[in-house]
Every structure is written in structure tokens, then in C-alpha cells.
Amino acid sequence: MQNFKKLFFIVLAFTLVTIGCEKDKDPDTAPVAKSCYITKMDYGTDGYEIMEYNSNHQLIAITEYEADGTATNITNSITYDGDKLMEFNSIDNGNVDLKIEYKYSSQSTPDSAIIWNDDGNGNLSKSGVFSLTFNGTKLVKSELVYNYMGQSIAISKNEYSYTGDNLSEVITYKINSSMQLELESTITYNYDTKKNAIHDIGLNYFFFNLDIPFMSKNNIIESIYKDKDGNVDQSKSYTNTIEYNDKEYPAKITTNNADNNKTEVVNYTYNCQ
User: Which of 32, 101, 162, 165 could disulfide-link 114, Cβ–Cβ 3.0 to 4.6 Å?
Assistant: First the structure.
């Protein structure tokens, strides 16, 4: 499972690198009643993260620490307007170096997400705009749009499919040298039937790191990555082995790449009510 510590680099790759290559219904973003909320994600020698919530049980802060408890001075803050996710900010030593800003029109789901990055001089610069399409409360398409000479050009596109309440497939297209979108990859996900503690904590529309299953009801147990030719990339595919607490939430997740070149272990601490 990817973690928040890697999020900044994932979003940068998703926007800057790509650009450089040139039925209304109340959404289900408001947290539902849970018996447990994650308060700590421990990555062993890679450190840990402390998670904080508001009175509505929406995640509002993730603070990063070294394994010995030393503060990294990196905090992720999230803001809401009622049930609506508005901003995700990555703050390093008091300076915002990444901002994801969700925009809404008349509908109750966001129709765009604007990405702002530090320009190197301490100022935020717009690096990409994602156009979002929903079917009810489920995100079904995100397009990275670039304005070129007054025209909006799609630089990349993700199409999302679901099985029940779980994201089951993501098809990604990227722009080619002919300025056309072409298939880049297909990722399929398989799930357990247990409770996912990071679903319904306010970030159901957070699509930038799909290995953290905010968009799904259950927990990922397998991810299969296929390239544009349909070949499985073992280095980008993985399985999760999950141990659960007595409330049926993950207590420990061991992630193994399909080529067995990498293993990651995350331990979870909860506030159970």
C-alpha cells in the first residue's frame, strides 16, 4: 500500500511530467458511523503518520514523523465545506508546496480539481486541472486538461469501473507524439470483504493515489498492472496480506510486489468507539 509520504511525488508525476510531454444526488463523502478510526500508520524504519479528525469524523490532518519520533515538519491538511472536500495541502516547514483544490458548480460532486505546486521560489503555480465526471456519487472519469491557445486539450485520462462499492479497474490513457490519447495501462483490483477504515472519512474523491483505497468500501488484496499491450508488469503489481483487529479492520498490511523485489509492512493503530 502506498502511503501519504509518497503522495507529493505521485501528484508531481501525474501533472508536471505529463504536461511536459505534451444525475444529481447528495454525495457519499460525509463519513458514516464507524466503530474505529485510524490514528496512526506505522511504516517501521520509514517512520509513521498521525491522523487527526474533526467533530464530523472527517480526516483533517496527517503529520509525519521519523521512526524515532522526530518531527519531519511535513503535514498534510484537509479542509471541507460541510460534506464537500475542498482542499488538500502538503505543508513542509510551514510552506505549502502542494495544493489540490476541488471546485464545484451547481452539482454536489466536484467537477474539477486544480493542482498547485511550489514554483521553487516559495510561490504556488498552477500545474494542472483535472476535469471530473461522476455517475451518481462514483467518479468514472478524470481528465488532465491543458489550455493551449484558447483550446482545452486532454493530456491524460483515467476511466474508473466499479464492482459493487469497490473500484475494480482503472484504464489510463496518455497523450502521444501525435497529440492523441493512447492506452498506457490497465489496473485491476481485488478486495477482501472486511471494513476499510479510510473509506468515508471525507476523501472518497481523492483519486491521486489509488493504492490507498479511499474510493472503495473494502481493502485491496491484489493489484494487477498491465501495460498497453496487455502484458502484466510484475514490478507494478502487488498483493496485500492483511491481519485484522477484533473489529474487523486491518491491523497490519504486508505488501509484496509480484516480482518479490519489494516488501512493505504497515501497522495500524485505531481509536475504537
Answer: 101
Question: Residue 113: is it exposed, middle or buried by C-beta count within 10 angstroms (0-12/13-18/19+)?
Answer: buried
CA–CA distance, 155 with 40 (Å, rounded to integer): 36
Pairing of strands 151-163, 138-148: antiparallel
CATH label of the domain that carries residue 11: 2.40.160.150
Domain of residue 118: give its range: 4-272
Q: Say how far apart CA 69 and CA 66 lie, in whole Å.
A: 5
Closest CA to 40 of 173, 197, 175, 163: 197
Residues whose CB falls within 8 Å of the CB of residue 149, separated by 6 or more in sequence, listed in order: none
Q: How far apart are CA 225 and CA 211, in angstroms?
A: 12
Domain count, the chain: 1
CA 89 to chain centre: 13
Report pLDDT digits (tens) over 154-181: 889 999 999 999 999 999 999 998 888 9
Give backbone dihedrals phi and psi of 217, rounded to 5 degrees, phi first: -75, -30
